[in-house]
Protein: Pentatricopeptide repeat-containing protein 1, mitochondrial
Amino acid sequence: MIEDENKLRKKKYPLKKKLKLKPNVMTYGVLAMACDTKVRAEELLMEMKEQGLKANAEIMGALLRQATCHNNLEYILFVMNTVKEEKLRIGNMFMKHLINFNEKCKCILSSSDDGKQKCKKGFARMHSIYERAYLKWLKEVDIEESLKEEHPWKQFMHEQPEIIQRQSLIKEPKRFCKRKLKFVLPYRP
Structure:
């Protein structure tokens, strides 16, 4: 996917090779906004894995937004399963997209236009599959835990190991004083 985009951009950005620009997570986040089909999303995620990058909640949110805009239920289920497999913490916007899509589906199913009955039957069947998968997904993904507010930089922070210098290596003080060489009473807390 990036190679295709690069071919189009070579004329605009001839200095890319000279400046040694390389794709990063931000690049893939922008590309995620252009993935309008499930196939393109799969390609994007595979390229990210090849580059050694892991998809984050923002990228998955962009993919979900595209899926909900195009009413592609297979694509939405793919994004939801990827979030579950990667064990990503979803945000408020991710859930808002899903809730808005559910409301949109209810409006589509409740409208009674005679010209759209054929499309409606296929959509109704897919929506019932989606609805079951959605309810199962809500149970498997810990929504309450993932919707808790956390500092945006926390995902990059790691607990530092405790430094040896800060630990008390001496469990009991010396019994003899070096200067006078006299006996000192043992330490009792």
About this structure: The mean pLDDT is 78. The longest helix spans residues 117-140. The two ends are 67 Å apart (CA to CA). DSSP finds nine helices and no strands in the chain.
